[in-house]
Design a protein that fits this description.
- This protein is α+β, with helices and mostly antiparallel strands.
- It has 10 helices and 6 strands; from the N terminus they run ααβααββααβααββαα.
- Strand 5 and strand 6 form a beta hairpin.
- Helix 6 packs parallel to helix 10.
- The chain is elongated and about 60 Å long.
């Protein structure tokens, strides 16, 4: 606890840590824009907080995403990183609400090109979030652990500002209740 107090003794660090706590999986440019800090100053404080293990970083291949140090295990950080991206989030919401779905049926539901859907399905399966099973003549996709993914989506929903997420939470609450 003392280490946390020392690390957060500066106002900028408290602001950064508070922002990341409210927006797990956020990235540098998002923080830069929302906190109004210069990238160099922000990077310095992020590095400081990470070295003191108050933050964890998950590199999703395009950007580093920041998480409160002790709150999320590796798989949770990976799922949140994917949920922060528009197409993977749409795919996961569709699979959570509708269950196992073929590529052909996902295409109009998600509203992206075949190549974009294919790319995102590979990303989701490689991360272990979605499983692929053969059903008769086609591949069918399903969320590996729907309760975990739904819980993570619900936990970060305020930081996503998305009507589809709000609708999902309403539906999921009714199904779970």
């Amino acid at each position: 606890m003392r280490r946390m107090e020392e690390a957060l003794n500066l106002e900028n660090r408290r602001k950064i840590y508070g922002f990341i706590s409210k927006n797990p999986g956020t990235y540098l440019r998002e923080m830069e824009r929302d906190l109004g800090m210069q990238p160099g100053l922000l990077s310095y404080h992020l590095d400081y907080l990470e070295r003191r293990e108050l933050l964890r970083i998950e590199d999703d291949g395009y950007r580093k995403r920041y998480f409160p140090g002790a709150e999320y295990k590796l798989k949770g950080r990976k799922v949140i990183s994917l949920l922060r991206l528009d197409s993977p989030r749409k795919i996961l919401i569709h699979l959570l609400v509708n269950g196992s779905t073929s590529f052909r049926d996902l295409l109009p539901a998600v509203g992206v090109s075949k190549s974009t859907l294919s790319y995102n399905m590979k990303k989701l399966t490689a991360a272990g979030v979605v499983q692929v099973v053969r059903s008769e003549r086609e591949l069918v996709y399903r969320v590996d652990d729907p309760d975990e993914v739904a819980d993570l989506l619900i936990s970060i929903r305020e930081s996503l500002e998305n009507d589809a997420v709000d609708r999902f939470v309403d539906i999921w609450s009714k199904l779970s209740g």
